[in-house]
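Please predict the structure of the following assembly.
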Amino acid sequence: MIDLDAIRADTPGCRDLVFLDNAGSSLPPRQVLDEVQAHLRREAEVGGYRAAAERAEDLEEGYAVFAELLGCEPHEVAFTDSATRSWLAAVDAMSLSPGDRVLVTEVEYHSNALGLLNLGIKIERIPSDPSGRVDVDALRDMLDSRVRLVSLVHVPTNGGLVNPIEPVVEAAHSVGALVLLDACQSIGQLPVDAAALGVDVISGTGRKWLRGPRGTGVLVIRDQTGLRPRLIDGKAAVWEDSDTFTVAQGARAFELWEYGVAERLGLIAAAKYALRLGISEITAAVSANASLARSLLAGIPGVTLHDLGGDKSGIVSFTKAGRSVEEVRDRLWDKGIAVSCSYSSSTRYDMTRRGIDAVVRASPHYFVSPEQVSEFARALTDV
Ligand SMILES: *Cc1c(COP(=O)(O)O)cnc(C)c1O
């Protein structure tokens, strides 16, 4: 069981706010904040190079920490500056050409879809089953040897859906296609184990459920993919002679030399914090808060829940009759309750299909108390 008092003491912000925007950008615990601030101070004392050298072992340990978190080998981990950067880097390495087929789920995220469209790739949508999850039978019917990539959003940005992974991987691998798992909304709230799931590539971000600093992301490139980056720098390769160079083995070839060292240390601290609490404990606590929110919201006149799927994630999406999503968000904010809005422009296939322009998104993390969830429901009743 998560010790709520201890966890809340680590997160000063959660006393002043009912913070329900962990799907947007969470409140980092003090362990993360301390790490970032201390490193920035050290950089100001001795310069960035010396400061980084002092933390070389901790920075190296970060690969092992994320390997543990994501069920892969340390050399399969690369750090980036966002989930989108990770996703784009992996897709770029696939050197897709217009004849290749790429399949996506109906809850594909805008930045992923736009990245593909800009490459001139025709995107084919895998239908959803009646519950809203990716329809694996429909996927099987779409597969042939020209399918290079199946892009699978684990948890979409706009609601409680959790997509199945293993059957998608099994189907995709039967024709030699790679599965890229967008785990941006699942890392830090649900278990994501690359080896157990069999996925080929994972993209994730630091600031959402993992509670790390902004401007941080992670990319897992599993050995089985053989993917190599097309764009490299002096971190990825050694310049041996005027025209010769050797590219580093493993996912690290996807990194660039320069990065925010303080933020990286903060990200590693955030992952350690999550591992210390235990992902299954976190999942249970987030799920309890989201279930409580859904059951309370279901009883409020005029409120409609929009979450798809069976077992749901910590993202609770809803609208209130007679109020715009912005009005709901701003009125709640005035009462010290942080929620955000999610628009059809982020998940166009899904929202257009369901005829929804926008939803309010409440995403309670484990540090939110049940009393705060009730406070949110009472406030929404009055909006
Ligand atoms: C937020 C989000 C992303 C993008 O993450 P960034 O770190 O902002 O690049 C990708 N996919 C999903 C499902 C998201 O919710």
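The chain has 15 helices and 15 strands. The radius of gyration is 21 Å.
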